[in-house]
Amino acid sequence: MKLLVVFSALQPAWDWDGPVRSMWNLDRGLAGLGVDVIVVTTNARQKGVVDVTAERVEEGVVIVTAQVLGGGNWEKANRHTDTDCRLDCGKIS
Question: Domain locations in the chain?
Answer without folding.
Answer: 2-88
